[in-house]
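Whiteboard transcription, Tuesday session. T.W. wrote the structure tokens on the left side:
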């Protein structure tokens, strides 16, 4: 996946060869991501594809149930932490799978519309469905003691983890572009930490992506009691692990 490029303050322009190389790399990544999305999309049945077809912003109503069941939109639907927990806990994280699909597809389509290129690992289809199919195929093979089953499950887990790291990178880029946030709030590599530390950055991603979409839609702020009062580390400015452990009030 393409990594964020820092902006040089030098007055001299970069060499033409360097610019061309960066452009070629970006084109390759974008083509790969779009191809991945299209490949996995073809394996999904039509009723599902029709239900999750991307919609313009404002198609769904703003009440909680409508947001939980809405198709992805561009710009994306603000889904604060409290709403994500409301959908995830009663469904034993089943709805979180739909959340993952939706935010990846929204970012994918948003990048495509605004930049003409994408840096996500395949949108909702290319991110979630390799994992889903990997689990569906791999676990039965594991139960039958067929060695390739372990490999398939591990590959599926690696793919979804790689996608999560890349998601954090993209959220950082977006948040740094808006004045209301003005920084990269996430440490993307925290996705590689063991639980519960990986959950810390996951909850922060939910919060800050929701805030970005709210700003992009020019919607008024809404208080998130979970992220702002009960667990203030979720909405806090960027911090280190040392500060997290040494500041119990953040918990």
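and on the right, the sequence the group agreed on:
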């Amino acid at each position: 996946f393409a990594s964020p490029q820092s902006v040089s303050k030098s007055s001299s322009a970069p060499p033409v060869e360097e610019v061309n190389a960066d452009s070629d790399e970006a084109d390759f990544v974008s083509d790969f991501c779009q191809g991945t999305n299209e490949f996995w999309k073809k394996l999904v049945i039509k009723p599902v594809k029709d239900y999750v077809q991307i919609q313009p912003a404002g198609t769904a109503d703003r009440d909680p149930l409508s947001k939980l069941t809405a198709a992805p939109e561009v710009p994306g639907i603000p889904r604060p932490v409290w709403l994500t927990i409301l959908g995830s806990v009663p469904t034993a994280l089943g709805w979180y799978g739909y959340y993952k699909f939706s935010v990846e597809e929204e970012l994918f389509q948003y990048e495509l519309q605004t930049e003409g290129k994408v840096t996500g690992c395949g949108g909702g289809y290319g991110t979630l469905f390799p994992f889903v199919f990997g689990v569906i195929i791999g676990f039965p093979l594991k139960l039958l003691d067929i060695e390739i089953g372990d490999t398939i499950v591990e590959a599926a887990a690696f793919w979804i983890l790689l996608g999560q790291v890349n998601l954090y990178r993209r959220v950082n880029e977006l948040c740094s572009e808006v004045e209301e946030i003005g920084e990269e709030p996430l440490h993307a590599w925290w996705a590689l930490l063991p639980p519960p530390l990986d959950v810390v950055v996951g909850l922060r991603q939910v919060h800050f992506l929701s805030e970005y979409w709210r700003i992009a839609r020019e919607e008024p702020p809404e208080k998130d009691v979970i992220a702002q009062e009960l667990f203030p580390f979720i909405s806090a400015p960027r911090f280190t692990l040392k500060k997290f452990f040494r500041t119990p009030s953040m918990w």
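Someone added at the bottom: Confidence is low (pLDDT under 50) at residues 1-11.
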